[in-house]
From TrEMBL:
Gene that encodes the chain: flgF
Cellular component GO terms held in the UniProt record: bacterial-type flagellum basal body, rod
Domain Flagellar basal body rod protein N-terminal per the UniProt entry, residue ranges: 5-35
UniProt domain Flagellar basal-body/hook protein C-terminal: residue ranges: 198-241
Start and end residues of each Flagellar hook protein FlgE/F/G-like D1 domain: 81-145
Matching InterPro entries: Flag_bb_rod_N, Flagellar_FlgE/F/G, Flg_bb/hook_C_dom, FlgE/F/G-like, FlgF, LlgE_F_G-like_D1
Subcellular location as annotated: Bacterial flagellum basal body
Keyword Glycosyltransferase applies: no
Similarity comment: family membership: Belongs to the flagella basal body rod proteins family.
Subunit structure as annotated in this protein's UniProt entry: The basal body constitutes a major portion of the flagellar organelle and consists of five rings (E,L,P,S, and M) mounted on a central rod. The rod consists of about 26 subunits of FlgG in the distal portion, and FlgB, FlgC and FlgF are thought to build up the proximal portion of the rod with about 6 subunits each.
Highest taxon above the source species: Bacteria
One example of a Gene Ontology biological process annotation: bacterial-type flagellum-dependent swarming motility
Name of the protein: Flagellar basal-body rod protein FlgF
Keywords of the record: Bacterial flagellum, Cell projection, Cilium, Flagellum
Length: 247
């Protein structure tokens, strides 16, 4: 009985973990540049001081979907979207270089170019700071040019260039902060072939219908595990009553 109960219990726990992954995907269906996560279950032996005779299901997040989301036209000068493969380099909350597809830029009170989450955008030599200007233009290669405040329309100055990278996806991992990091901890070099589309942002690549279907299937699976535990409990009670009558 205990073996069957352990299997049913562990199956229910792992089903809840799988629901967490899909619920997180669904919650970010409107998050700019969000990359959805996969989930899968595999058999895992229970190791201990004895022979691993028991096996339970383990849910894991093996990979992230890097397919491009829909391009949404905004017409805003500071909105950019990566056209095709590649990422925008930013500094995470710990000051380490990370990568994102979210190009909903803005300028903070210090004149620094940041993402919609407030993360500093990486330039060719560090964070990007912009002086007061009448207009800002971000080119397809990430170059940032401005017309200085009070300057003539032909007084264009190129100040910096956004760092764009296109690393091997096998060397990428998405962490809990939602940003993409390198698996080996190395900083990726700029890739001149990555291009930006100005006036656009990229939506999440989450398929809401697909995620809802997964969540519904997992809910039925969890219910099945609960019913199995009830059946095991009823069988144990019946066995106990039989033993009481025969003793």
């Amino acid at each position: 009985m205990d073996k069957a109960l352990y299997l049913a219990m562990s199956g229910g726990v792992q089903t809840m973990n799988a629901q967490t992954i899909h619920a997180n995907n669904l919650a970010n269906v409107s998050t700019t540049g969000f990359r959805s996560d996969f989930e899968q279950a595999r058999a895992m032996p229970v190791y201990g001081n004895y022979h691993p005779s028991r096996v339970y299901a383990m849910t894991e997040n093996p990979a992230t979907r890097y397919t491009q989301g829909d391009m949404i036209q905004t017409g805003r000068d500071l909105d950019v979207a990566v056209a095709g493969d590649g990422f925008i380099a930013v500094f995470d909350e710990n000051g380490q270089e990370a990568y994102t597809r979210a190009g909903d830029f803005q300028i903070n009170a210090a004149g620094q170019l940041v993402t919609g989450r407030g993360l500093p955008v990486v330039g060719m030599s560090g964070p990007i700071f912009l002086p007061p200007s009448d207009s800002i233009t971000i080119m397809s290669d990430g170059s940032i040019s401005i017309v200085p405040q009070g300057g003539a329309g032909n007084e264009v100055a190129v100040l910096d260039q956004i760092k764009l990278v296109n690393p091997d996806q096998q060397n990428l991992r998405k962490e809990e902060d939602g940003l993409i990091h390198s698996r080996d901890g190395q900083i990726f070099q700029p890739d001149l072939n990555v291009t930006l589309a100005t006036g656009f942002i990229e939506s999440s690549n989450v398929n809401a219908v697909e995620e809802m279907t997964h969540i519904m299937n997992l809910a039925r699976r969890f219910e099945m595990n609960v019913k199995m535990m009830d059946s095991i409990r009823n069988n144990a009670d019946s066995s106990a009553r039989i033993l009481q009558r025969t003793s």
